[in-house]
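User: Sequence in, structure out. Go.
Assistant: Echoing your sequence, followed by the structure tokens.
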Amino acid sequence: MIVTEVGNHRVRRVELNPGTTPPPNDAALLVMELNPSLVIYGTVGKTYQIEYSQTETLPLVWIPITEVSLSKSPQVWTDPRPASGIKRIYRAVLKN
């Protein structure tokens, strides 16, 4: 997203692939990171497996991403490598 003050137009250009077109010399460049976050409510000290599915039809196929040991509840986990252009459904499952 390139933001600049020109006439009545505050937003000049919105790009989904930042860096492909250089901004004008008088503009500021703003890059937004849209990584999904989960707020996990659970038992402190317990381990939860974070999983995702890319399908919305049953049966869902769950793919493990990582494990999180809760140091507090609630605890926020952010996906460091979200899928680009693909819808994901997340869940946290208590490990035995």
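User: And one key feature?
Assistant: The chain has two domains: 1-32, 37-94.
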